[in-house]
Structure formats: structure tokens, C-alpha cells
Design brief:
The protein starts with a helix and ends in a 6-residue tail after the last strand. Helix 6 links the parallel strand 1 and strand 2. With about 550 residues, it is an alpha+beta fold. The protein has a domain of about 120 residues: Trefoil (Acidic Fibroblast Growth Factor, subunit A) (Trefoil). It is built from 15 helices and 24 strands. The strands form nine sheets. Strands 3-2-1-4-10 form a five-stranded mixed β-sheet, with helices on both faces. Helix content is about 25%, strand content about 25%. The structure holds uridine-5'-diphosphate and manganese (II) ion (MN). Uridine-5'-diphosphate binds next to strand 1 and helix 8.
Length: about 550
Amino acid sequence: MYFDLKHVIRQKQTLFGKTEDSRRSEVVFPPFVADSPPDGPGEFGHGVIIDETSLSEEDSRKFKDGWKKNFFNQYASDKISVRRRIDESDKDWFKQCSKKKYRPDMRAASVIVCFHNEAWTVLLRTIHSILDRSPPHLLKEIIIVDDGSTMDHLKEPLAKYVSALDKVTLLRTSQMEGLIRARLLGYSKATGSVLVFLDSHIECFPGWLEPLLDRIAESPYNVPYPMIDAISKRSFSLKAIHPCCVGTFKWMFLVFAWASYHSDDPTKGLYDPMKSPTMPGGLFAIDKDYFAKLGTYDDQMNHWGGENMELSFKVWMCNGTIEVIPCSHVGHVFRDQSPIKWKTGSQLVRNSIRVAEVWMDSYRKYYYDTFHSKLGDYGDVSERKLLRKRLKCKDFGWYLKNVAKEVQIPENHIISGEIRSMAAPVCLESTGVGGHVMIKPCHGVGYDQHWYMLDNGEIRSAHQTSLCYVSETPVLVAAKSCRGEKGWIYTQDKTLMVDSNSVPQICLQASPGKDSLTAKPCNSSPWQKWIFENYVKK
Ligand code: UDP
Ligand code: MN
């Protein structure tokens, strides 16, 4: 049975008698659907398709405004109950997971949700899905942390709304602090001995919490995270995905990436926990004492990003294990871009440099290699280095060798840097999608235009170091996983990039006005000439 929130709020008001509160002007909640019938919009994870052309002028304005403010379809979300049903009990994952037995000594969690200018119905759905789908004895509290939001609905209306909800506490940072310090504020007030961090645009599936807490009951050094299912940013449709992947990272930007998972343990089934070299960072659970022992987060990190890599590296290096839990499902609205801006621009590089300086030992050069600018001012990391020393953790070489095994180290490169055409100011650029490579104007900052040539002639992009580029007859250049075969020969004198396996010789070639790369019989055309120089950091 769905409760009527207004009723609850009224109940709470009368509970305290007619005090000052009732004399103040009534708080007006933004419109939302509290409850809807089983065939209502978006129920059971269905999407809501909005035909923009049929909207009235006012609705069309709301529709556009929703996209502009959130970079997702707020208008669609507003049509869906904030307590919509999710039922996947007929799905294989649910049937298999329902058979699992969880430990009786699981501890109740403090769930921490930070937000900056989150949409009303999206935030409410986040909160209600946690309340509705967590066994009461395993949910100590929900701490929501407003990180300097400016939207009106997050002021008094939100305070009023959550005051009627049991177990929910609202905290506010005094100014926008960024995700990392906002989470630390939530952590400092948490009373549970297990923490669960979640984003503010999520929906928990039935049974999401138990399998996470079970892992922590098994060992406080287990750091589990759920399967992260996509809530469509267009329609808000939501379905559970199949377990497939675990987290890894790329040298470029030191960002999180997914990698396919292969268990070397034949007793492990599809729905058993999977060891994950890194975590995406938005959603995970951790024992509070272990989090404290690890030095929580680096509170000098600003805005967003890098904190998930810091935690991933130090968990593994300091006795812990990060795992994806296939029986725990949480939906998340993915966006290509965030509407949340930091006052001085993206802080990802600065945060990541802090991680690299403290945790990555000499391997940090492979990250630094991928951007051609100076490190800049990344603040003081001496305390974080002392923390690492105190913890006596394993080193980054151990982590790469034993945990993040799929991360290729471009160790034996003989040349690195831009591969620049001599015919035009264009460079090889990796798109990051299936190893696809294009010819683009040289931007000079590295990243997707930073390449390595190994001593066996393999060409690898800093973007995807596990891929090698081969010429495929007649004209294609394709990415393959590297097998240590002989690759290209760069002839410094003639500046040609020759496929060492080809007879007659095939050369890498750009074409005027085209962004695709080809491989053609070698000739003396300037479009086959390349400058590939060792890049020396300024
Ligand atoms: N967030 C925050 N302060 C910030 C940036 C982000 O509180 O300065 C919140 C944001 O509202 C969200 C979470 O942190 O709930 C993660 O951010 P986001 O969803 O933009 O990251 P993504 O999921 O795209 O990685
Ligand atoms: Mn998010």
C-alpha cells in the first residue's frame, strides 16, 4: 500500500500541536506523483516517451527547461510516480539471487546521498526507493547532503518534505564543496558502522542492499558495489543488466573504464561477487572503520572525479578487495555531460595528479605522458604521502601485476608523442570507441593524440593501450588486441610508417580533406610522411 505523503506530513504537524509552524505560510511542493496505478506512466521500469510536437506551449517550455537544467528529461520523470514499482521477480537474475542465503550478522547502513541542484522528482525517487527497498533493520538512516544547491525546491520544500520521513536527515554544506567534501560531511555525521554512498539520481531494485552488506559482514575489507543499471535520460526506462564487467582504468585522464570479466575460479557462478580492480565511485558500500583507517577521502580534492581511483588503489594496496555484486542492482541516470560546473573549471586533472603523486609510484609517468601540459598547482600532498607510509601498503607495481592485470603498461616504447602528418597540420587521434582512429587537426595537448611505438613496432594509443593498430588489406587500419607480433617500422629518415609484415610495402597514409586513416602501397607522397617524435615534457 502506498502512503499519502501529505497525510504523513499533516500527521507530524498535528503531533507537535499548532505551533508557530502553522502560522507560517504553507510550503508549496513542486508537483509530483506520489502514487500511481500499476499501469501508470513509468511503472515497472517502463519508459515514458514524450512526443514533443504534441505539447502545449507551456508544457513545451517545461520540457525544454527540464533538459537545459538537468541534461536529462525532467519532464518525463515528473510524469512518473516517485514510488514507482519495479518488479523483476520473473527474471533469471532475481530467481537465482533469491536463492542466496545471507549472513545473519549483517550490520545496518548509513546511506549517504549528495546532490547539487538535483531535480525534485528524481531526488524524491532516489530517497523513496532506498526507503521502500531496504529491509528496515538494515537501514540505519539516510543522510542527504545538499552541496550548495541554488534551486528553490531544494530549500524549504525539501526540508519540509524530508522532515516527514523517518530515518532521513538533511545536511547542507555552507558553500558548494564538491562531491568529495560533501560526502565527508555526510560521513562525519553517520551513526551506522557501514556506509553506503549513492548518487542523487538513482533507483534501488528490490534486494539491492542485503548482498552488499553480506560482503562486509564476511570481511570489513570487502568494498562491494552494485550493478549499475542505466535509467534512460530520455524516457527514464529502467531494466536490470547482465553481469559482464568489472572496473579498470585508462592511463589517459586516469579515468574509470569497464573491462570484461573472466573468473579463474571454476566454482564461481554468474551471480557471485566479481573482483574489480577499480570502482566507478558513484555507488558503493564500505565498512566505516575501514574507510577511516584508509584516510577516508582526500579532502583537498575539489568538485568531482579522481576520488574513486584513490579509493580503488588504496583499498587493493592496503589489504582490501573491491567487488561488483551481481545480485545487487541500482539504476542510475547516465549523462554524457554534467550540468554541474565548478567555479574554476574541471578539477579532474588536479584531483588525479594528487592520486598519481601519492599512490602510483613511478608508473605515474604513463598518466603524465598523456597530457602535454605542466602539472600545475595541485596543492600539497605531503599529508597523503604520510598516510600511505603509515598504512604500509603494497606498491603500485604489485597492484598492476596482481590486480589490474589487463592494464597494459607501454613499458618498452621507443617513441611516444604525436603522430603528425607532414602534408597538413593533422594528427592521428584515437576515438576511444573500438580502437577507431581518425585524422584530426593536431591539438598539441596529448590525450587522444598521444601514441606509443614499442620496440617490436606496435603502435598503441594512450587512450587504449591494450589495442594495436594493424594494416588490413587493402586499405584499412584496424585495432586489434596486441599479440606481440611485429608491427610497424618508423623510418626516421624517410618519415614513413611502414607495415613490417607487408610485401610489397604498405604505408600509413592520410588523405586530403578526409578524417579516415588508410594504409596504401608506399610512394613518396607527403600524405605518407609522418613526424613521430619523442615528446619531452616541458
Ligand atoms: N555532486 C555534488 N557536488 C558536486 C558535484 C556533484 O554533490 O560538486 C553530486 C551530484 O549531484 C551527484 C553525485 O555528486 O549526485 C555524482 O555526480 P554526477 O552524477 O554528476 O557524476 P556522474 O554520475 O556523472 O559520474
Ligand atoms: Mn551520477
